[in-house]
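Example 3.
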Amino acid sequence: MSETRYTKDHEWIRIEGEEGVMGITSYAADQLGDVVFVELPEVGKSFKQGDEMAVVESVKAASEVYAPVSGEIVAVNDALDGEPGKVNEAPDADGWFVKIKIADKGELEGLMDEAAYKAHVE
Amino acid sequence: MADQPLHRTPLFDLHVELGAKMVPFAGYEMPVQFEGVMGEHNHTREKAGLFDVSHMGQARVTGEAGALEALITADLSALETGQQKYTLLLNDEGGIMDDLMVSRPEEDFLFLVVNAAVKGQDFAHMRDRFGRRAELIELDDRALLALQGPMAKDVMTELCPQANGMTFMTAGRFDMAGHDVFISRSGYTGEDGFEISVSAAEADALARKLLADERVAPIGLGARDSLRLEAGLCLYGHDMDETTTPVEAGLTWAVAKSRRERADFPGARRILKQIEDKPEKNRVGLALKDRAPAREGTEIHHEGEPVGVVTSGGFGPTVGGPIAMGYVRTDLAVPGTSVDLMVRGKAREAEVVKTPFSAHRFFRGS
């Protein structure tokens, strides 16, 4: 069973054992509009929870994406390079950003579950 | 400034009804997008887009045209009834206070359209310098709609067929579906199109008539910006301001030849010298090699040295990639020159290119 957690800045992280796959929520993708470029970190780079980790560019503006938990990047979604529109089409599936090796699972406790996130964006 | 309540245009209720996302812009609550910037941009390039530009300043000037001419770069004695010119309001040093449209829709007055953010200071400056020679009446009881795109003329065929007899940069007074309007054949998208000045009281009704045509969609400020950027058109306060001259901004063409010969516009000595000797910096178009957009404020480097700054930048939906405009050292303002745009500390390669990025499709006559 995988579990998904959400940040107040509209990132999601799906926990898969010691790792987490993360992206931005469909709410965030809708707010941004048409995504035209995603700047992803390099594999091997480490971030602290809340660090600026990636940048999403829409036609309108650039927006920062923050690390939902501390950890090391173990994979990035290279497909976004050619098809940034995947972030709009399937933000919680093909539009994923990076896979992180979670440093401290305790940090997940501070994130929202789906019901709490739903309430947050309403 | 921040505490002042925002103004609303006569189309505010219509925007909200159409589901617009409203944002503050130049003191007004304006629609930044309806369905989405990319779709609205493409709709305007393919069909016809309707823009609310009622936040812009409209004014009527009567009296001696020379009083206005002394402040701008156009030759108003050559502006015949029915003609329109793009011109620049200059300070005494030749810095650009605003860019504006001046037309003579009817014989006895001049009609001005200026930028929203500076309309108060523009009109105050004009009144101050006019003295008793001319009178400026601000038309704040009028809305301004822009209908832009290759199908704009077909929409006009239904609502105001006489307007299709106009060519690019002409203006006149028309009866449009029962409304008394001033129309010019111009715009800010690079497409053929019209700008329609209508009384505030009738603006909503006229906009609804335009939107009833299935070829017409409402377009927000987001797409207005990407359209004008692709068309290589300057945005005041970004691509030029009082610290730039017409020569630096690549707008020497807007300084009428007769005015150059007479050397009688503000800052003429400095500007004529710049035309002769070339200025230190020039506005250029920039095409990025990869996909990362470079926004306003991005530093431009050449061989590791800072040589300028991006003043407008984003993604061009029609171009299909990131584009920008900015100022670089004049020796580098040559198409084909390779520069680096420092996006978030990373050098992104770009090439100096001619503008427009997307070819203009103005109607200059058949």
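Residues 3-104 of chain A form a domain with the OB fold (Dihydrolipoamide Acetyltransferase, E2P) fold (CATH 2.40.50.100). Chain A has a mean pLDDT of 95.
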